[in-house]
């Protein structure tokens, strides 16, 4: 319980923790930032680490001169790109090994083919949009690897998504993060950055499930007399 309480406090007051870290350890903050973003995007079992809020806060700290904006952006983009690439490679490595068991309960050939076709067709947009959705951005590259999305295509959209995500949110923090209203409501803003994308994901999953059920009922409905 103490660990959970600390983690929640870390997320909601990440600005204070980062500021204290910079004061104590100086340039080591760049290694810490790289590690957090790389693990959050590159290790499929660590989707709960801060991402959007971290980038915003880093931008705000750059705005008051505690951190170098160009260096922070470069480190964070590298971490985001390498993290997704690692996650994709993990999915690509383990996916075929699992899917060789065609007679097992873990394998659904039709579902795999659908996932593969989806990522070949819409994977680029998915990889970019997923950057702005907590939890989804951790699983999207892994699923892309499992679905055997073309590596070159994945890598291109991985870089594009990382640039838009990192540069966009750190710039927002740099220009707006030190406004008094933002500082006074920072915890609420962080909650909003977590909850709003989360609700969008839940709604999307609910809608997709409902559409699948509707299609299934339609397929099962017997055709009328001609």
In brief:
By secondary structure, the protein is mostly helical. Helix content is 80%, strand content 0%.
Textual characterization of the structure:
The model has no long low-confidence stretch (mean pLDDT 78). The protein has one domain (2-217). It has 10 helices and no strands. The N and C termini lie far apart (65 Å). It has 226 residues and is mainly α.
Residue share in β-strands: under 5%
| Mean pLDDT metric | 78
Total count of strands: 0
The helix tally amounts to 10
Structurally, the number of domains stands at 1
Helix content: over 70%
Report the uncertain regions. Answer: none
Global outline = globular
Biggest β-sheet strands, sense, barrel: none
Distance between the termini: 65 Å
SSE inventory with pairings:
Blueprint lengths: L1 H11 L1 H12 L2 H15 L9 H12 L5 H31 L9 H22 L5 H11 L4 H26 L3 H5 L1 H35 L6
Helix pairs in contact: 2-4, 3-5, 4-8, 5-7, 5-8, 6-7, 6-8
Keywords:
globular, mainly alpha, 226 residues, 80% helix
